[in-house]
Amino acid sequence: MPTDFAATRALFDLPAGLCYLDGNSLGPLPRTARERMARAMDEWGRLLIGGWNQAGWMAQPGLLGDRIGRLIGAEPGHTVVGDTLSIKVYQALAAALALVPGRRIVLSDTGNFPSDLYMAEGLLRMLGDGHALRLVEPEAVGDAITEEVAVLLLTEVDYRTGRRHDMPALTRKAHEAGALAIWDLAHSAGAFPVDVTAGGADFAVGCTYKYLNGGPGAPAFIAVAPRHAEAAPAALSGWLGHRAPFAFDLSYVPGRGVERFRVGTPPVLAMAALDAALDIWDAIDMEDLRQRSLALADRFIKGVLDAVPELELVTPREAERRGSQVSFRHPEGYAAMQALIARGVVGDFRAPDIMRFGIAPLYIGEAEIDRAVDVLAEVMERRLWDNPAYRIRAPVT
């Protein structure tokens, strides 16, 4: 049955009159999340420490991992939830490097999210021994995959421009060169169909607070290909990644498969909100979502370029080359975005000059797209951004 996107909008608690085009940064509140979190709070109050067993808190990272795994094409039993995306990047990269001994180069691109690069820099600096991070322009990644490379570390969709890498092609090239591939799905999971198994990914990581709508600070996930599950070492050998944590051994024994990539105590309340959000995805056909996303994005692109030719589109026009966001460049992009937000159209800004608009069909339709075009045209044509108040940079842009 085709996905009813008019019905899915009612599943979210959005302020009346708000045109929310920032789900690529933080998804809105699922209506059932309050009740689900209240239930977890009640379990905490009634059961106290017994909640870990009686309410099944300890099993949630794997159960939620499998629900996300279905959305990203991971094999059942090979995805786990917990910690932050930066920690999962670190774990995946450390494990991948250990699986390719004798090589020292991690290849990434200049469009990767800085946090991924920071984690790589920190790990490689600690490893020493000639380990280095090599960055190339996004279009040059394929040609830069040589037999020097140990690991290819890429974010599938560029957080600034929305440009999408070809996961199967680049992973295949990495494997042909004897390297492994790690894919960050922060702007992919919940945005369009993903298949890490068919794409050959060795490791995949991602967050759940963007398109998956898990809430601010919602836990991250990591998926490990079955071929590496028992061989990949756990660089962050946390207590809950131990094979028998409640044996309290003084030496670490890695858990089985992806379980070894658990680190800290599961965030029970955050997982309750994520659990509610994932219920929505059970009724979503991802191909329907993708087609709807592309149609809305095309409508937005055409509307903006027709009405505001001074804006430079930086998102690829070709459907296969983009994710589910549209980005424009303008020298006054920050102030212009603040003017939009003041008028009820919410996107965000990424330095130095990019205005981003997330296209999330679960709660965005033609009416929101057309309104965003009209307000953006008014802001630019009337120079409404030229207001000192809109130039004051907030901590989060």
UniProtKB/TrEMBL annotation:
Signal peptide: none annotated. Pyridoxal 5'-phosphate binds at L85, S86, F113, P114, S115, D116, T155, D184, H187, Y209, W239, T265. GO terms for biological process: anthranilate metabolic process; L-kynurenine catabolic process; L-tryptophan catabolic process to kynurenine; NAD+ biosynthetic process; quinolinate biosynthetic process. SUPFAM superfamilies: PLP-dependent transferases. Keywords: Hydrolase, Pyridine nucleotide biosynthesis, Pyridoxal phosphate. It catalyses: L-kynurenine + H2O = anthranilate + L-alanine + H(+); 3-hydroxy-L-kynurenine + H2O = 3-hydroxyanthranilate + L-alanine + H(+). Its cofactor is pyridoxal 5'-phosphate. Pathway: Cofactor biosynthesis; NAD(+) biosynthesis; quinolinate from L-kynurenine: step 2/3; Amino-acid degradation; L-kynurenine degradation; L-alanine and anthranilate from L-kynurenine: step 1/1. It comes from the Bacteria. The modification N6-(pyridoxal phosphate)lysine is found at K210. It is an enzyme of class 3 (hydrolase). Pfam families: KYNU_C. GO terms for cellular component: cytoplasm. Homodimer. NCBIfam families: kynureninase (TIGR01814). Catalyzes the cleavage of L-kynurenine (L-Kyn) and L-3-hydroxykynurenine (L-3OHKyn) into anthranilic acid (AA) and 3-hydroxyanthranilic acid (3-OHAA), respectively. This is Kynureninase.
